[in-house]
Amino acid sequence: MYTYIVRRLLLMIPTLLGITLVVFIVMASAPGGISAQSLVEGQNLEPQAKKALEDYYNKLYGLDSPAPIQYLRWLNNVSPVGFTFDEAGNLDGFSLFKGSDLGKSFRYGRPVTDLIAERVPITALLNIISIPIIYIIAVAIGVRAATQRGQSFDVGSSAMMLGLWSIPTMLTGVLLIGFFASDQYWHWFPTSGLNDRVALDMVFLPHWGSLSDILILIFSVLFATAFFIWMSRWSKPYTRAACFAVIGLLAGFFMADALPEKEQGLITYLMITSLAAALFGAVAYAQYSVLRVFFMGLVGLGIGFIVAFYFQEGPFVRGFLLDRAWHLVLPIICLTYGGFAFLSKLTRTAMLENLLSDYARTAKAKGVSDNDVLWRHVFRNSLLPLITVSASLLPSLLGGSVIVESIFSIDGMGKLAVEAVKGRDRELVLSITLISGLLTLLSYLIADLCYAIADPRVSYE
Amino acid sequence: MSSADTPTARSAGASYGKKIMHDVFSRFGAKLGLTWIAVIAFVAVFAPFLANSHPLLLSINGEVSSPALSFLTSGDVTVLGVFICAVALYFLRLSFTKNIVVLAVVGGGIALLSIIFVNPPQLTVYEQYRVNESAANYDWVIRAPIPYSPKDYIREQGDTGLEAPLSNEHRSHLMGTEENGADVLSRMIHASRIALAIGFIATGIALFIGVILGGLMGYFSGVVDMIGMRLVEIFEAVPTLFLLLIFVAFFERSLYVMMIIIGVTGWPGYARYVRAEFLRLRQQEFVQAAIVCGLPLRSVLFRHMLPNGMAPILVAASFGVASAILAEATLSFLGLGLVDNPSWGQMLNQSVQSSTFNWWMAAFPGGAIFLTVFAYNLIGESMRDAIDPHLKRKS
Amino acid sequence: MLLAVKNLKTYLSSGAEVIQAVDGISFNIKKGETFCLVGESGSGKSITALSIIQLIPKEICHHPAGQIWFDYRHNDGTKEQVNMLDLTGHPQRDIRGARIAMIFQEPMTSLNPVYTIGDQIIEALQLHWPELDYDSAKQRAIEALAQVQISDPEQRVDEYPHRLSGGQRQRVMIAMAMACEPDLLIADEPTTALDVTVQAEILRLMKELQERRGMGILFITHDFGVVAKMAHNVAVMRNGLIVEAGSLQQILRQPKHDYTKELLAALPENMIRTRTESGEGNRQTQATVENKPILVAKDLKVHFPVKKGLWARTASYVKAVDDIDLTICEGEIVGLVGESGCGKTTLGRALLRLIEPTNGTICFAGTNIVPLKRREMQPFRTQMQMIFQDPMSSLNPRLNIATTLTEPMAIHGIGSNQEERLDLARQMLIRVQLSESHLWRYPHEFSGGQRQRIGIARALVLDPKFIVCDEVTSALDVSVQSEILQMLLDLRTERQLSLLFITHDIGVVEYVSDRMLVMNEGKIVEQGLTDDICHTPQEAYTQQLLAAVPRLYG
After folding, report:
1. C251 and C293: one domain?
2. Tell me, what CATH number does C354's domain have?
3. Last residue of a domain, which of C265, C295, C321?
4. C291 and C434 co-located in one domain
5. Rounded CA gap, C55 and C103, in Å?
6. Would you call B249 and A422 a contact, using CB atoms and an 8 Å cutoff?
7. Is residue C138 in a domain?
8. Is there a single domain that holds both residue C189 and residue C293?
9. How far apart are CA C523 and CA B296, in angstroms?
10. Does residue C554 form part of some domain?
11. Does A7 touch chain C (CB under 8 A)?
12. Which of C94, C110, C113 sits opposite A367 (nearest CB)?
């Protein structure tokens, strides 16, 4: 096993070399090549001053050397094993523990390592929250679709997931911000960034003014959630749907009421209330109890919170944690909804294949209950392709966060990448390529190792 | 000749490929998707006749002229020519390869001819038609259904030109206008060309590279396989979007460059599929039989292996077209897309730039992207569903 | 009566079609009795078994008529006759595994690969005896493994299924089935996928366990040899109906129904008997064969490297074919037998250079073909052909039969234009007992037997002198098999063909081949005239192999 890991790590090196080489070649062969031109453009200087400034930058960043030399020099800087140079730029010696220096960014003038160290945690935060959400919902839907093959849930969820996947992230982002985070419609969510400036000084946890406020909060949340969960378990779907649709009607009414004066009109009221009623009714009518209970419970939770806040008297401090969570809601929605389709399809296919397998039949013949066969035998085996696919989830999420970060003005790696590329910032582009390549290859390795743990047939000797 | 040998008997056997195509398109999802794509294709081909500020036909003092026709560009003519050729081929029912060859030849010929002969006048003043019409200078005028060109910037003095749908009493803009006053619907119609073109051509390039490399890797294994897999890994290790960003930002922003770039970054997926299929097929007994019969390599590869391995690739290609369209939209949205002609992604970008949120500027182009991508995804899904049961038969 | 099936009907519906899989059958099984249900593929015997234990998904099956009465022994000792078709929920699950157990055909896939075999046996135990704690359950599991004669059960109990061979996995399946001491064991073709020596052991094991426990066995098979070994009573099924039933001796020696007689006559054992009795002598004995060798292989080796370690260095070799000498004469049929993994398929392919030999020479009509380049090999390709095992994958699904048959002809210049070639193809189809109209159809429109005939036609179309037949009848029903074997023998006489007949079925080899080679682990263990080897085997391995074959009579 260890030789396998070592071999994989060693094999990463040529791949990373290849990636950076390809990127460098693209940069160097582009019209204009890599030069300090972009730094200097846009400033109102005389041609001579411009030229002098350009020369200065070229010298500073070594942009005047031919392209292969630039690449080799960069390579030397990055690798922990290499040549060292003294102050004047003369060859000093060869060291095995030089350490890795990613260089300085042109645009920001700061060391790349600092920039990346600042941004990576933010992108990581977005992704780490997204991955479990995607997996849990996709698996829930996929398993249900497999057991209900060909029936309404299967066909319906498949179409819906496909539709969700087809909606471009930019559109969702723009629409979400436009409708829910702007003054023109509802301003329920913040427009941009990860925190309000005020929140940076706040205490971490939320803070209520008085004890009665906390009691009201706990009481209303518990009551509302319990009530709705109880409602979701009523046996007759029509009564459920009707009651919940009425709640939806009220919710829609309040929502339409919250619109600014300009947008309120009879049509808007009708549209929103009927949409809300229909949506709530459909959710309550659904046969899939897990999803139904979950959503109705969520609605209960929400209503409980809203009621509690409505009635609270004392001061309330949001706290850093809640503030961040509030800012994260819209970006996470944008990031996750596209991932459901692929994973749920995969789960469904794997489950269907395994449901027809011989060992599932053996388990049934032993007298194992249908539910246990489903989860203990079939699902356990269906995990395997899911693990394999999780490796490629990270690169796609990294890509997805590019758009999301740009729309929501979140300062993460994605946004950094776009700016670096636009600004032709050689160091930054190469470093980001290196880091994302490294992360991707590492995630492949981890996925393979997890697979080896999950599947006893596979052993890397 | 025996009676069992007539030409009808010869084509009576239900060819495997035809059977699968029939299966795929009998599903509801595929029908829906195909309908939408057909609509978009129609719109894209006939765009200069659907949305144009130049009237289709006008008569001044008894003289009939067609400004729309005289302002057609060589691109318009080529597209129209290829479309007519494709329709004709559909009715002729030639074999698949012959179809492609004829299309390519005719397309190339028309393109060449139109570049040489079609020269629309350089200067276009759209306002003249409206002025003349209101001044009743024309005997009669037949305008396009949407009488605005994508670059017809209608601005009142001092106004932004931005209008919500159907808000103007004098002119009807079904989908409103953007900031400079150009009609959104017209821009969308003309942008559909770019969406379709990028979808097909980029995927075509990716397929071409992927199939060749994947096939070589799958058939020859050994060193070829090792090098090929390293290449695949390199291209896959960087998130596609980063790679696209890097490529696009450093090269100029022309349509052709974008198509090539999206194609060049998309090939690893197809290569993997082809390689996996070829590895599987090499062990299939009919391939072994072909080798034992001494069939030449090209027959083994292209007649025996490739047609049987195309199924998952076609599925992937359908999804690939969808993601190519999304890729272009994303790039345009990030400001790295085409500058000159409008594309749906670029229109989305525009909607973000303005300070107020104008929902029609985002919803319509975004909706168009959504519907097109959804259509391709539906077709891909139907293909996948139709092909799977054929591959795995369980009694 | 332990199990009484009365007029059972099971209809399967897929989409609009309804298949009458089982159309009204009745039989009884007593305690301690082995009841064999025999039939060809599609006769409905497996569906019957699945119906008894109700394992067919409810969505696709329904029973328009019939009852299955089972003598249900409750935990407190009381007995109750229950109709299996009416049971649901807890009693159904209780019976499954604890009172009626089932083992299946494919041992390689019937065990869950992610759990240890111990855990899977313990699962069955704890389901039916919930008071059992983990350690005592594990102890019982070890005992069960010991009972089915798995060596080192204490170690093996913690192993994963992929570490066990097919025979061992089937033993584990039996152990799992027997662990809860069922009254009835349903065995659905349990030994079909196993080697003949392993099969003999498993059958012996099952008989022992039955005698010890006094349980009833419903044994489903297509192999009359197995029936002869195991059954007390037999029923022959065809198209969902039982055509004849009776005791073992009645069915084997005095079959009444035509279908039963047909089936028995088609068995290689009986075909040999008929042939010797009628004195036809389809066999060319050593005296009549001209003794002109057409294929001579010397020191043939095919070694596959095994790569290990950090640098994937070649650590050792898998010696699939290890120093083989082989001679085949004109007009001769040589049988190549061996168990799975012995290398016979590799040898067959190496002779045709589908797999490149690592070393050695193969002389065809005097020329060594091993070092030849592609173009030099072309003329030899018409002389040496191959017929494959799996009718489902041996034809290109995209091409119609006409193209499949005429393409090789066109490449080698047989026939001056397409019309001539089509004519030749037509004649070939008629020769393999298909009709001319089949020329324009596609493979998916044909049955397995028909596809195999097309495969033979394809091999013959180039007029070869030597054909390798790689398990050509292993995937076919016994009646179709006898027709194909007869056809091959006729073709041999007509065209002076030499055949290398690779198979694992000793009965077929006895019937078809003149000379015989026995292969084991890449080496030829024994060779000689078929009659000699089958009646007086010299080597221990051959003796073992022959002793394991289940014979019909005695």
Report:
1. no
2. 3.40.50.300
3. C265
4. yes
5. 12
6. yes
7. yes
8. no
9. 34
10. no
11. yes
12. C94
CA dihedral (B181, B185, B190, B191) positive or negative = positive
Query: Is C97 near chain A, with CB under 8 Å?
Result: yes
- Binding partners of B (≥3 Cβ pairs within 8 A): A, C
A165 with B251: Cβ contact below 8 A: no
- Write out chain A's pLDDT in tens, 461 residues: 788 888 888 888 888 888 888 888 877 777 666 665 555 565 666 777 777 777 776 666 666 677 777 778 777 777 776 677 666 666 667 766 666 677 777 777 788 888 888 888 888 888 888 888 888 989 988 988 888 887 878 888 888 888 888 888 888 888 888 888 877 677 777 777 777 777 677 777 777 767 777 777 788 888 888 888 887 777 777 887 888 888 888 888 877 777 777 666 777 788 888 888 888 877 777 777 777 888 888 888 888 877 777 777 667 777 777 788 888 888 888 888 888 888 888 888 888 888 888 899 999 999 888 888 999 999 999 888 888 888 777 777 777 788 888 888 888 888 888 888 877 777 788 888 888 888 888 888 888 888 888 888 877 65
Q: DSSP characters for A362-392? A: HHHHHT--HHHIIIIIIIHHHHHHHHHHHHH
Task: Return the CATH class of domain B16-50+190-394.
Answer: mainly alpha
- Nearest beta carbon to residue C388 from set B17, B285, B308: B285
pLDDT digits 0-9 by tens, A177-211: 888 887 767 777 777 777 777 767 777 777 776 77
Q: Which helix (H) or strand (E) holds A332?
A: helix A319-336
Distances (CA, A) of C121 to A222, A361, C48, C334: 45, 15, 26, 46
Q: Do C399 and C503 share a domain, yes or no?
A: yes
Residues C112 and A362: their CA atoms lie apart, in Å, by: 9
Q: In this complex, do C412 and B294 lie within 8 Å of one another by their Cβ atoms?
A: yes
Do residue C230 and residue C319 come from a single domain?
A: no
C336, part of any domain:
yes
Asked if the structure places residue C460 within a domain, the reply is yes
Q: How far apart are CA C431 and CA C435, in angstroms?
A: 9
Contact status of A18 with chain B (Cβ, < 8 Å): yes
CB–CB contact C127 A367 (8 Å): yes
Residue C375 phi, psi dihedral angles, 5° rounding: -70, -35
Residues C381, C454: one domain?
yes
Count of domains for chain C: 2
Last residue of a domain, one of C211, C235, C265: C265
Q: What is the pLDDT of residues B75-93, one digit of tens each?
A: 788 888 888 888 888 787 6
CB contact under 8 A, B333 and A178: no
H/E element holding B203? helix B203-220
| B304 Cβ under 8 Å from any chain C Cβ | yes
Domain around C325: 287-548
